[in-house]
Design goal:
By secondary structure, this protein is an alpha+beta fold. The protein has two domains: 115 residues, Roll (2,3-Dihydroxybiphenyl 1,2-Dioxygenase, domain 1); 115 residues, 2,3-Dihydroxybiphenyl 1,2-Dioxygenase, domain 1, CATH 3.10.180.10. The protein is built from four helices and 16 strands. Strands 2-3-4-1-5-8-7-6 form an eight-stranded mixed β-sheet, with helices on one face. The chain has an eight-stranded mixed β-sheet with strand order 10-11-12-9-13-16-15-14, covered by helices on one side.
């Protein structure tokens, strides 16, 4: 995915190569795949298709108007992991990226491994413990800018300064620390273009989750989307509120996977 940082212009990234460090995909680990598919279909209008056999268990891709939006995978054989959204960052060389992560106090949990003939992937954690994915390949495509599509990717951690050097070393991000509220917040940029952010929240970081990457999905009405979450069996964790990015609410699906719904600022 090409990051839509506050934009609502609709486009697809099919066939494009992403600059290293760009959020290029987002995928959910779910335990009851059919039930969770129904939740997100009811919330965002997603349809689904199965892209074929997966080495990491059952997997579907969510679509809007026939364009890929996100992935949802079933439980890994023999492993019980919490349901959560994972942000994937693009790489030109997944094997070299994995080596760098290991040598820089990060952890590689899965991979590098081939995803059929589509590319190579890595599942890793940064030094503070926030899980993320790495993707090398051209075939992942993600519709952006439309309701129901990923709009922002933000790392939520205790202190931005504790992990920013790791990500800068990994992908060469430039940082923009400007925040009129004085919050511990850094925008990550590539060639002057904002692609993601790091938000240090200190003691407000949920103990049950720890550091994590947060995916925001675009909606046309944040308040209506939050109500719909509860109607579908999810939970509103932080009610709709104004932010520099737009009107946002933090919610969880019926399995507890946390994300935000965002009506981007124009």
């Amino acid at each position: 995915m090409t990051e839509v940082w506050g934009s609502t212009r609709q486009h697809s990234t099919r066939g494009a190569r992403h600059a290293p460090g760009t959020p290029c995909w987002t995928s959910l680990l779910a335990h009851d795949l059919e039930s969770i598919k129904s939740f997100y279909s009811g919330l965002f209008g997603w349809a689904y298709y199965n892209p074929g056999p997966r080495r990491l268990g059952p997997y579907v891709r969510a679509t809007i108007d026939g364009q890929d939006v996100a992935g949802i995978g079933g439980p890994l054989p023999g492993r019980r992991l919490p349901s959560a959204w994972t942000t994937y960052l693009a790489s030109d060389d997944a094997d070299r990226t994995a080596e760098w992560i290991r040598s820089s106090c990060g952890t590689v949990g899965v991979g590098p491994l081939a995803a059929k003939d589509a590319g190579r992937l890595v599942l890793a954690s940064d030094p503070a413990g926030a899980p993320f994915g790495v993707w090398q390949g051209e075939r992942l495509a993600q519709l952006a800018g439309a309701p129901g599509t990923p709009a922002r990717h933000e790392l939520v951690t205790r202190r931005a300064s504790s992990v920013v050097a790791f990500y800068q070393g990994l992908f060469g991000y430039e940082t923009d620390p400007a925040d009129p509220t004085g919050a511990d917040y850094l925008t990550l940029c590539l060639e002057g273009r904002p692609v993601a952010a790091i938000h240090g929240v200190g003691a407000a970081l949920p103990r049950s989750r720890g550091p994590h990457w947060m995916t925001s999905f675009e909606v046309t009405d944040t308040d209506a989307a939050a109500r719909r979450v509860t109607e579908l069996g999810g939970e509103v964790l932080v009610p709709p509120r104004g932010s520099a990015a737009g009107r946002v609410a933090t919610v969880a699906d019926p399995e507890g996977a946390v994300f935000t719904v965002l009506r981007s600022a124009r």
